[in-house]
Write a structure and sequence with these properties.
Layout lengths: L6 E6 L4 H11 L4 E7 L6 H10 L2 E5 L5 H14 L5 E4 L15 H26 L8 E5 L15 H20 L6 E6 L8 H7 L9 H14 L10 E2 L8
Parallel strand pairs: 1-2, 1-4, 2-3, 4-5, 5-6, 6-7
The structure holds NADPH dihydro-nicotinamide-adenine-dinucleotide phosphate.
The site of NADPH dihydro-nicotinamide-adenine-dinucleotide phosphate has 28 residues, from helix 1.
Length: about 250
């Protein structure tokens, strides 16, 4: 058994898509413990099956918009581990596409709630645990989207989703700015157009048969950016999964 200190990750939306891909990749690493945030822990057979082999996954209840879930998760982690090194705020929705002139305001609110308030709720609850990381460089990473770039506005019908990702980019940069003194590394990352329940239907709306990037390639690329991230070079900037910087 190794005496290495464990690297502890928290990943939201961990039951499918990119979030599950992160858990699958990280679970293979030595001295790693993963808190996998999911809406309904009783349903997560895939994670349970994986954990029966790797024994380094804790499934934890997290509805993104619930402050009490985030607080309860933090209390549980405080008791079992006492710190977190890396948070990946991955859970998100793309539930509506259509012209801005008829986009229901409910969709604007719903996307804002899950995609903007969700990551911020998670940050507020887990920040005390990130501050106890002894890695010297705790990380708060938000899975954003190139669709949220205002500098390179894509011509997709994504007012509700895009506005929420632009807003979460701001929130993430604010976290970077206000936590400079703690040495926290915070940045948003675009995972590519990925073969998931979200990415494949979106790809069809822009004329592709399917999303071009596999979950494995997206996750490997993002983990390289996350592993190598520094306060000086990476934090407070917008990246993609291939390590390319994107315009805000
Ligand atoms: P999926 O739709 O495949 O998975 C979404 C995940 O988020 C699921 O685990 C889902 O849980 C969870 N989730 C959604 N809403 C909530 C909520 N209210 N509370 C808790 N969990 C929630 O999406 P992807 O894996 O493709 O996307 C992951 C992230 O990557 C998202 O933030 C997305 O915006 C971003 N992204 C994805 C791209 C792509 O091409 N796939 C491109 C750009 C960005 P449940 O199963 O319970 O619904």
């Amino acid at each position: 058994m190794s005496s290495q200190r464990q690297t502890i990750y928290f990943i939201s939306g961990a039951n499918r898509g990119i979030g599950l891909g992160f858990v699958q990749a990280l679970a293979k690493r030595a001295d790693t413990l993963i808190y996998a945030g999911v809406r309904d822990p009783s349903k997560d057979d895939e994670l349970k099956k994986l954990n029966s082999q790797t024994k380094n996954i804790h499934i934890i209840k997290l509805e993104s918009i619930s402050e009490s879930d985030a607080k309860a998760a933090a209390e549980k982690i405080e008791k079992t581990s006492g710190y977190i090194d890396v948070v990946i705020a991955n859970a998100g929705i793309l539930n509506y596409q259509g012209p801005i002139v008829t986009t229901p305001i409910k969709e604007i609110r719903d996307h804002y709630e899950v995609n903007v308030a969700g990551p911020l709720i998670l940050f507020q609850a887990l920040y005390p645990l990130l501050s106890k990381s002894k890695s010297g460089a705790p990380k708060f990473v938000v899975i954003s989207s190139a669709v949220g770039s205002i500098g390179e506005l894509l011509p997709a019908l994504t007012a509700a989703y895009g506005a929420s990702k632009a807003a979460v980019n701001y929130v993430t940069k604010k976290i970077h700015q206000e936590h400079e003194k703690d040495g926290l590394i915070a940045f948003p990352i675009h995972p590519g157009l990925v073969q998931t329940d979200m990415g494949n239907p979106f790809a069809k709306t822009i004329g592709l048969d399917e999303a071009p990037v596999t979950i494995e390639a997206s996750v490997q690329g993002q983990l390289k950016v996350i592993d190598e991230a520094t306060r000086e070079k990476t934090s407070g900037r917008f990246w993609d999964f291939q390590g390319k910087e994107l315009p805000w």
